């Protein structure tokens, strides 16, 4: 199975970690986020879930095969044809 971006372009999306306004334990939430941002943990998470990571220190810890996988880290020629959907 391969991920293909049509020549006409496609959408771009981001997954994020957030702390809800109604969070009952913000200190634990911040600790979890900081834990996930540590390069070793971010690299392990990226490999486990099969997503790219924007954490440049974590990227350096990834196997070369992952760092060079265009499905996770597409070339700029592909990225320039992607767009983020905007709320209407």
What do these coordinates show?
This protein is mostly helical and about 90 residues long. It has a single domain, classed as Periplasmic binding protein-like II (D-Maltodextrin-Binding Protein, domain 2). It is built from 5 helices and 2 strands, in the order E-H-H-H-H-H-E. The protein has helices spanning about 25-35, 40-50, 55-60, 65, 75-80; strands spanning about 10, 80-85. The longest helix has 12 residues, at about 25-35. The protein starts with 9 loop residues before the first strand and ends in a 5-residue tail after the last strand. The mean pLDDT is about 90.
Q: Secondary-structure blueprint of this entry?
A:
Blueprint: E1 10-11, H1 26-37, H2 39-49, H3 56-59, H4 64-67, H5 76-79, E2 82-83
Descriptive keywords:
88 residues, mainly alpha, D-Maltodextrin-Binding Protein, domain 2, two-stranded parallel ribbon
CATH top level assignment: Alpha Beta
SSE succession: EHHHHHE
Poorly predicted runs are none
Number of domains: 1
Largest sheet: 2 strands, parallel
CATH topology heading? D-Maltodextrin-Binding Protein, domain 2
What is the average of the pLDDT values? 92
Our measurement of the CA-to-CA distance between the termini, rounded to an integer number of angstroms, reads 33 Å
The CATH homologous superfamily is termed: Periplasmic binding protein-like II
Strand content: under 5%
Using only CA atoms, what is the Rg? 16 Å
